Amino acid sequence: xxxxxxxxxxxxxxxxxxxxxxxxxxxxxxxxxxxxxxxxxxxxxxxxxxxxxxxxxxxxxxxxxxxxxxxxxxxxxxxxxxxxxxxxxxxxxxxxxxxxxxxxxxxxxxxxxxxxxxxxxxxxxxxxxxxxxxxxxxxxxxxxxxxxxxxxxxxxxxxxxxxxxxxxxxxxxxxxxxxxxxxxxxxxxxxxxxxxxxxxxxxxxxxxxxxxxxxxxxxxxxxxxxxxxxxxxxxxxxxxxxxxxxxxxxxxxxxxxxxxxxxxxxxxxxxxxx
Length: 274
Known about the structure:
Blueprint: H1 20-33, H2 35-58, E1 63-66, E2 80-83, H3 84-112, H4 119-128, H5 130-150, H6 156-166, H7 170-175, H8 181-192, H9 196-224, H10 227-261, H11 265-272
Antiparallel strand pairs: 1-2
Helix pairs in contact: 1-10, 2-3, 2-10, 3-4, 3-5, 3-10, 5-6, 5-8, 9-10
């Protein structure tokens, strides 16, 4: 097979193939090479949350109040107050975050093809596949309901972890391989088979790193900073952490396919239609 070359005639970056240390190195290499587009892609879903949070702090707009029933002998519980702007922000952010996930995966693929990583093009690519991206997300959510409920009991936790790992590459199957929601579920499981522990190890590492960074940053921030600054800090944190996590999972996805399928740049270019 003829080696793949970029339109300018240069060789693209090699597809990842190595241990988890190599996955981590590749992740930060990809992010470092295109940090601005990745941050801008991740920033878009944060904007509705940021705007809704700031407006709600001003008290503008309707506020929904939810009272918690308590026994007469118990201490009264502070009612939960949610602003309409917060609700709208969450809904809009949810929709855009699905697009952002597909856009980030596409941007990583563009990096490994040696092509420019562009925010607009990445979102256009994701938008063209939005029905499939949304459908696959809702299907995964539906599947995880049962193990999620069972995880209240200790016996359900392993089932939930197994399901999350098995379905980790559903969005990649949609965004890269053009699979539909149902086929993407099967495809994710096929990719994970034989690599469950590697996939679990990476996912566990990402989760622990995010939890650790969250505690280090937000425990003191919540005590010493005003609420508006905490909202801004949370937005900045998510804007940086989210693309790095998505890049790491995408790098692992390519690594597994290289190992199992002798996956090449030509295969990637064909799947993307480049």
